[in-house]
């Protein structure tokens, strides 16, 4: 098992959210070996607590003072009232795992009113993989922990997608039409790392726009998909309005994305590379609590910066290029962005092997950039 960067909040209960198979349960059992583990995927226990949430107290001995882990809390959200009571009356400490905070809020349940913190489990980062990090493997298979113990990662990822559809979407009753949602998943994979046009996606999967929007919310509820907005603060140019879309892991994206003789390998590789950077930026920003908001920047006439990070630590523009040699025209996006935001720190992560500075832009080889990303974000 890889060591994870995630830190335990001391002496305070916390929610731990993340997509399935990112390693929440494995990590918790290692970190809290003496804790009580309550798995709401166990059918008998699930039905017992669903029928009578107050039975939770009976599962915890009177003199117990270690941690109590409740896995998949969103399956019985009424348990949160009991958790609240036990925190107040018995001063117990809970870890509550699930797929989405929004899913719980949508049901109007008690989210413990500040008595529990919120943390997220991401796919493995390059820093956590250490010597096992390989850019080529990461682009093919992503960073779900099980990838690194599976004999056939491609088969595992295909099964992961099927399992998610069956266990999360169908079981939780998030949609009645699983076939239409499957078509939607394939259609949305063509928008990976690209400006999102919801009407086009709806047309491609033969559903109406309202239903396509509902499917997007399902992806976001399950933390499978993310939309990042356009950076428009004090904009001096006309900007595009649509957000950019990412599935949460490069390997999951490639498992969902249909491929055939009309599909360009370069297009798929480019989207996978940008996805890998997105998941690394997002995970490091969250785990190290850097506090950046993540955007992209694109003008109406096509000048673009792949990632813009904005927060108290500063403003960063990052462009991602697969090529080993960068032509002058490929700097246009960053240079145009710099004219509007001269205080920004500018990076280009590229496929070459030499770190260099051209004007105000620092070029960093892709492998080095990913491994040193925590320091890049920290030291800005």
Mind explaining what this structure looks like?
By secondary structure, the protein is an alpha/beta fold. The chain has 2 domains: 108 residues, P-loop containing nucleotide triphosphate hydrolases (Rossmann fold); 253 residues, no CATH class. 38% of the residues lie in helices and 18% in strands. The protein is built from 15 helices and 14 strands. A 6-stranded mixed sheet has the order 9-10-11-12-14-13, sandwiched between helices. Strand 2, helix 2 and strand 3 form a beta-alpha-beta unit. Helix 6 packs across helix 11 and helix 7 packs across helix 11. It is globular and about 70 Å long. The model has no long low-confidence stretch (mean pLDDT 90).
Set out the fold topology.
Elements: E1 13-17, H1 24-31, E2 36-39, H2 43-51, E3 67-71, H3 79-90, E4 93-98, H4 101-105, E5 116-120, H5 126-129, H6 135-141, H7 153-170, H8 178-189, E6 194-195, H9 198-204, H10 209-221, E7 225-228, E8 244-247, H11 250-256, H12 265-287, E9 293-298, E10 304-311, E11 314-320, H13 332-340, E12 345-350, E13 356-358, E14 361-365, H14 366-371, H15 373-378
Parallel strand pairs: 1-4, 1-5, 2-3, 3-4, 11-12, 12-14
Antiparallel strand pairs: 6-8, 7-8, 9-10, 10-11, 13-14
Helix pairs in contact: 6-11, 7-11, 9-10, 11-12
